[in-house]
Amino acid sequence: MRISRLWLASGFLQSSFGFQFPHPLFERIQHEGSFPTANCQRQKQRTHSTTTLWVSELHVPAYAESKLPFILTEEDMQQLQQSNIHGGQLTLQRLQEQTYTANIDYESLIPYQDGFLLHKTIVPIFNAHECQQIIDEAEFIASQIEWTRNRHGNYPTTDLPLVELPQTLKFLKVALVQRIYPLLRSQFGMFLPDPNKLRLADGFVVKYDADQGQKELKPHRDGSVLSFNIALNPASEFEGGGTWFASLDAAVKIDQGEIVSHSSALLHGGHGITSGKRYILVGFVILEEYAPFSMRFYNQVRNL
Fold this sequence. Notes:
Elements: H1 11-14, H2 37-50, H3 62-66, H4 74-82, H5 92-95, E1 106-112, E2 115-121, H6 128-145, E3 159-161, H7 166-188, E4 198-209, E5 217-220, E6 226-231, E7 238-240, E8 243-245, E9 250-252, E10 259-263, E11 268-270, E12 273-287, H8 291-302
């Protein structure tokens, strides 16, 4: 099944994504001269010498708890079965039947060993309605409790954790199993001892606002094995943006519903926007039960 036909085959997923509150174009990598390249090189040197990031449940015990909200429960499966418009018994195996093909569904960058460390989809993984629903819920919840600005230590973002967004969380638990994990297994499986052990440890919606908020995120590395971000609003709604990677000295841009996925050890940053607003959904993914491998892989990539 091709990714572009995914939405047609998942009516049971979309039908469960209803909020209880009021209420696509492919762009290749571009060099962004305004991003502080020299500053990034200094940051890269400093990060190598002074910063240790832990990327597994063994080293970050909080991950054992933070991953739980993103795991499908038996109750979730029962609700999905009730809304399954295609009939037949719905199982985790059926949910994971989605497949992806390199150079057709996604483009790969930064070669490493037998694979690549960075990928971007060529077509959306979320449709426009799904993306807008996530933005709407985030803005509604933010109007009640405000956006957080200090959850991520030295590199905070203006964001809301997905555990504060009940409808988005409900939707994403299925989307992870049905769309995102199969994509990550296709892209990074050659590096991983057991790709089926991928688990989301942290997820959040980020808001960049050129007029009155955070405009960029300085170069950094994430404390996980893999990272991804999904564009929630059209690229036509802002100027600039994208994810900057030191290995490319360029920003990778995507449009609404598309996803950038990469090794968390790659030095990267949120390229600044100069107008408009940019919304993304970010995920940090760990590999359960493989702490030594996770640290070894992370350090191999960061030392490239």
